[in-house]
Records
---
Amino acid sequence: MDVKVSIFGFGNVGRATARVLLKKAGFIQRRYGLEFKVVSITDRSGTLWMPEGIDLREALTVKESLGRISAWTNDYELYDMGPKEAVRDVGADIVVDVTNEVNAHEWHLLALREGKAVVTSNKPPLAFHYGKLTKEAERRGLPYLFEATVMAGTPIITLLRDGLLGDSVERIEAVLNATTTFILSEMERGATFEAALKRAQKLGIAERDPRGDILGIDAGYKATILHCIAFEPMTFDNAEVSGIVEVTEGKIKRAGKSGKTVRLVATVEKGTVTVEPREVPLGSPLAVESHENAAVIKTDLLGELVIKGAGAGLKETASGVVSDVVKASLSLSG
Ligand code: HSE
């Protein structure tokens, strides 16, 4: 089955997604009988639209060497369209949002109203409009999937949405931001905050504006999304969030001396989401390293369940996006 895909955002995550689509095309065809045709790519410079399918290798070369998709050589395939127009006008089965656009919920809703499935790694639409978006998708019987918003491709969202259907979640405690873990673990090894942050940016872990990571906002968005799935819709405005700005080298050393490590921990319980730096014992599942994330989910039937894995990184985030694109395609074809 041919599946037409529109990609919005061709930054690090968008390009990593395109690379995985290229690399895994044969695998996906053999395993699921799906062939993806990327019919449009929209970045800040405009939209490249080719109903017969874009050569992703060429698109990657253009973007990586010239910095914008509108540097494409054939002018007649380029359109001066932003996401809203492209969502409306391009004939696609699945809209993939890999931007950081805060107001993207507007065109997610538009896509659903146009009968298109939505896959996204973009957190603010979910952290502020979860109820509205998922209701619209349900009403229309369309997939609205967002695995890569929390823990990259590590499937905590699938676990909470599609597993544990007879369990009631009581609490989730989780380390959900890789940049802060990376900075804190580098500081444990003697690096300064600034040097550690620079490395996190170089590795593509930190957000373009790393203040969102350091102030706990990114972890707060993710914890809010988990709350919406595990309990009921709420918005980030009701989360209590503090970051790692006040975690000094002295605090880190003192924690180390008592067999502990400082991590930015999110606690999610019905009606409350808090994010704060906490000392966790070295043997605890939350004592993650480098770009790992971990969550301890406590339910009434199962007790404590731990899920741990990559929480950031380019191919790791693309893993979640591509998995959702496959899932959405299978659901549209079924
Ligand atoms: N900046 C994010 C993090 C990337 O550090 O976890 C993944 O959402």
---
Amino acid sequence: MPSEKSIYAPDKTLFKNAYVSSFADYKEQYNKSIDNPEEFWGEITKQFHWETPIKYDNFFRYNFDIRKGPIYTKWFDGATTNICYNVLDRNVRNGHGDQIAYYWVGNHPDDYSRLTYKRLLEEVCKFANVLKSKGVKKGDRVAVYMPMILEAVIALLACTRIGAVHSLVFAGFSADSFSERIIDCGAKVLITADGVWRGEKFLQLKSICDQAMEKCSKHGHNVDCCVVVQHLCRVTSPNRMQEHKKVYMKDGRDIWWQEAVADASTSCYPEWVQAEDPLFMLYTSGSTGKPKGVLHTTGGYMIYAATTFKYVFDYKPNDIYWCTADIGWITGHTYVVYGPLANAATSILYEGTPFYPNNDRFWEIVEKYKVTQFYTAPTAIRALMKFEDDLVKRHNLSSLRVLGSVGEPINPEAWMWYYKLVGGEKCSIVDTFWQTETGGHVLTPLPGAVPMKPGAAATPFFGVQPVLLDESGKEIQGEGEGYLVFSRPWPGIMRTLYNNHDRYESTYFSKFPGYYCTGDGARRDADGYLWVTGRVDDMLNVSGHLMSTAEVESILTEHRGVAEAAVVAKPHPVKGECLYCFITTTDQVKFDAKLLQELKHHVRERIGPFAQPDVVQNAPALPKTRSGKIMRRILRKVAVNDRNVGDVSTLADSSVVEQLFGGRPENA
Ligand code: WT7
């Protein structure tokens, strides 16, 4: 395996025409972005359309220091624009009208289609007119619960065209989670599809939406209109036994997408919005149970999505780019929709899974479409590297130049497999560290310029100033490990949490005044490379899905049989981490197979299938300090069966530790 000293230089022939083609060049541009942000970003903003121009004496302003007043970030304040106009009309005007914006690849290999920039613009205008006819206005929130189909992109862009704020919820979240998010953002209009096949699994999206809308009504929030894409009738079912599922449509509330757009006009004048007007919100887990509505605004996000996409993937005309992330996550927002479109890129939008119909589906698609940039998650790479190498080798993957990784630290084994087998030892791997909150990549090597180290997110992107702090808040210079924070805003950073600026300030800016705190730890090596080591708070990262231990604990304790619950992350060979839950039952209830099933089911129901616990252990007592605080450090040791628990002198009852080790279930 590669050691920390292993270093891989970008391939000279592949990257001789890269936008940034040497480390010196990267350094020079980086320094300019830090020393003279007005000039650096100013040149980029000129390529975009601003209805009211940017004032250079008001280019950007911010306060990151809670002691000096409220936290804020403003870029290009006072300028007006429209992101939909910039990613569609502007490209059509520049001659990209007949270029493919998306190749849509269905779950079933017989299903595929394509959409040019010109057609995409027309479809967006049509749907924007439908939204308008339903009373959607500038600033209104629209909830979206969609599979990976072209209408998902169309729906988002239609919102932004009329200044509405989209709020996507990943179509893997349960009705409970979805309803909570609809109520929180106050959406009156919902967009979904009848259903979708993912591999051989069928998801009845509309019926999940029905349940969600019902739950909303019970809380006094009514959705006025639900637009439903008729998708199932146009795809090949992987399962011939499928009964024809009837979709319930409520009179006066639910409408079919296809019928609604049928006679809508193909033109719709864009709504010019302020650079600092909200663009979209997206929920992310917080360390308390309630999800946080991360809010991004228009001008800065647009410029940052466009710039990171261009440089990090080194996207050139005629390249075919593919990001496998679901549109329901930030990666889908920035690097399936806005970043690629802002660069007039041609992308693949894939509906299915890596494993259907066979475990080489990804490589089959790369070969068929001659993909040049491929962007996926370590958990997918680890799942795929379990199969025989031939599944990769039988495909011609020589079109590839850049391989991306996102979602969690990539382990060196997975990195090497990706580099050697998929990339043929010539592609650059960009290990992109970022968050829902950061809007776009903040740490990543640039593929033509920064030599790679397996597992290191390496270097800051333009405009980003990372700092490592020790526990006391002191900056760590040179080699060392500490809290990863940023000392100034880049254009794409989130501006607030929806309706909760206090929580924004306390979550991200209060621990270390003067800095944005990521919640991750990182190490700087002797070469100045940054290695993200993972969360420092009580967050878990299961297959790239972030959730908090507190969130899962509070859901477990909803069960009448649970008196107390503690959840820790346990390392998992494919998922990265999985949930290990300790349960103290109430006196009336026995810990048995039935309870176990009920608890797993309950977590799926309340959060979504991806949150299902792997291990649930009966814990007659939890390791607590005399003041009653659960010592999670010990639970993490029990989860991995490591008896080196360290100092237990602060425990109220140290015999609990032995009991827990003795009570580990067989599947643990
Ligand atoms: C958290 C953010 C934005 C991408 C999708 C996840 C972890 C993400 C990396 C990476 C190490 C990473 C961090 C971060 N993370 N990418 N390349 N190396 N860790 O978005 O759900 O907001 O999660 O994912 O812990 O804080 P998210």
